[in-house]
């Protein structure tokens, strides 16, 4: 059988020392999850009873659902009570205001900012929380809001993951292809049971379930044939991206396979083996050091076409616990009874909704228009 395009270019992943979670199949994850609904004390589906067809068939388009991979007694909805009052206040205030990108604050926050990198900087999920703090003068690493989950959650997630993957890990990647303008986009999606960036590596946040990716863009000729090798590669992380020409000096290749350095805990992808400065003003960095295990082309147990999966479109729920701050608690934090239409979803610690859907339930722009999102096409 001839080698498929996704096999020919599957990235080689080099992980950082200390990494505990690796790409797995979502079927395996479901095996130890319950399915829960916001505000409901009991699970809708008990542990051991979930499978992908059930998820797709019985729970279509219900955004208030989420999978839970750790005991409910551990994943308490009062998780924000363990954070400082300043962090809680920042979260509540961020939920009230519309984010406004401020160039001066952005230059202070991102010392690597330029006209070329600004579009990518605007995509970071933490901007609406952190940029107002930078603008108000809170600029020391000690003032960074750490959205960490209790260590007991990480311990439970790791124990369940290890038990599920015995006797040896079943590494899995997902892929999909899409035509957009003059490009053919080949996307690789990777699912991890847990993101322990804050607890394990001094990052900003932790959460159950973690979807990460890397995209390849091939030129397409007038006859509709794609040209090899790819023209561009996009490394994805923190809702943002880093796009490079295929032949760029920063891009490492081993044969036809690009090498991606996976940041410790966050699983963001990068082209180079180094520590990536994200927000130096807060000492926020990704450790893409490549000094841990590596996954090569022959190490994958499964290679799954994402579009053929029954759950990709219908399941809008979270791939892990999602957390909310109650209206009364938000009022206490602000010292007022300012009205809100519902609870406040906690960013950073709430699990993602999947490869197709963003945190707000809308279809991700990198799903529908990846080349535009990657900066290869003009809006």
Query: Unreliable stretches, pLDDT < 50, 5 or more residues?
Result: none
Order of helices and strands: HEHEHEHHHHHEEHEEEEEEEEEEEHEHH
Strand % is: 15-25%
Kindly report the spatial arrangement of strands forming the biggest sheet: 8-7-6-5-4-15
N- to C-terminal separation?
40 Å
Q: Tally the helices: what do you get?
A: 12
The description of the largest β-sheet is: 6 strands, mixed
Percent range of helical residues = 10-25%
Number of strands: 17
Cα Rg: 20 Å
Give an overview in words.
- There is one protein chain.
- With 379 residues, the chain is of the alpha+beta class.
- It has one domain.
- Helices cover 22% and strands 24% of the residues.
- It is built from 12 helices and 17 strands.
- The chain has helices spanning 5-8, 26-30, 52-58, 85-96, 103-109, 118-121, 127-135, 151-165, 197-201, 327-334, 365-368, 370-373; strands at 12-15, 34-37, 65-68, 172-180, 183-195, 207-219, 232-237, 240-245, 253-254, 257-262, 269-270, 274-279, 284-288, 294-295, 302-305, 324-325, 344-345.
- A 6-stranded mixed beta sheet has the order 8-7-6-5-4-15.
- The longest helix is centred in the middle third of the chain and has 15 residues, at 151-165.
- The mean pLDDT is 93.
Question: Care to give the gist of this entry?
Answer:
By secondary structure, the protein is of the alpha+beta class.
Essential attributes:
single chain; 379 residues; alpha+beta; six-stranded mixed beta sheet; 12 helices; 17 strands
């Amino acid at each position: 059988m001839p080698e498929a395009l996704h096999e020919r270019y599957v990235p080689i992943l080099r992980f950082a020392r200390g990494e505990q979670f690796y790409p797995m199949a979502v079927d395996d994850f479901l095996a130890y999850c319950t399915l829960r609904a916001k505000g409901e004390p009991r699970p809708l589906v008990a542990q051991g009873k979930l499978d992908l067809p059930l998820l797709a068939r019985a729970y279509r388009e219900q955004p208030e659902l989420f999978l839970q991979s750790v005991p409910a007694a551990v994943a308490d909805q009062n998780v924000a009570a363990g954070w400082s009052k300043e962090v809680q206040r920042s979260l509540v205030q961020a939920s009230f205001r519309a984010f406004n990108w401020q160039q001066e604050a952005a230059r202070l926050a991102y010392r690597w900012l330029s006209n070329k990198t600004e579009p990518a900087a605007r995509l970071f999920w933490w901007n609406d929380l952190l940029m107002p703090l930078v603008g108000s003068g809170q600029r020391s690493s000690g003032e960074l809001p750490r959205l960490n989950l209790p260590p007991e959650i990480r311990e439970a997630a790791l124990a369940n993951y290890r038990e599920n993957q015995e006797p040896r890990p079943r590494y899995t990647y997902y892929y999909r292809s899409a035509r957009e303008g003059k490009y053919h986009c080949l996307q690789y999606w990777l699912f991890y049971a847990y993101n322990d960036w804050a607890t394990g590596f001094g990052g900003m946040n932790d959460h159950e379930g973690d979807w990460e990716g890397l995209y390849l863009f091939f030129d397409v000729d007038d006859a509709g044939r794609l040209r090899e090798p790819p023209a561009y590669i996009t490394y994805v992380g923190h809702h943002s991206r880093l796009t490079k020409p295929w032949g760029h000096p920063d891009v490492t290749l081993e044969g036809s396979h690009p090498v991606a350095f996976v940041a410790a805990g966050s699983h963001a992808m990068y082209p180079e083996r180094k520590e990536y400065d994200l927000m130096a003003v807060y000492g926020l960095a990704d450790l893409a050091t490549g000094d841990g295990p590596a996954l090569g082309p022959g190490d994958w147990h499964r290679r799954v076409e994402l579009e053929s999966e029954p759950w990709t479109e219908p399941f809008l729920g979270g791939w892990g616990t999602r957390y909310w701050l109650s209206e009364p608690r938000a009022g206490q934090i602000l010292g007022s009874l300012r009205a809100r239409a519902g609870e406040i979803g906690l960013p950073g610690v709430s699990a993602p909704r999947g490869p197709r859907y963003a945190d707000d339930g809308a279809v991700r722009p990198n799903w529908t228009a990846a080349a535009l999102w990657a900066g290869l096409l003009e809006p």
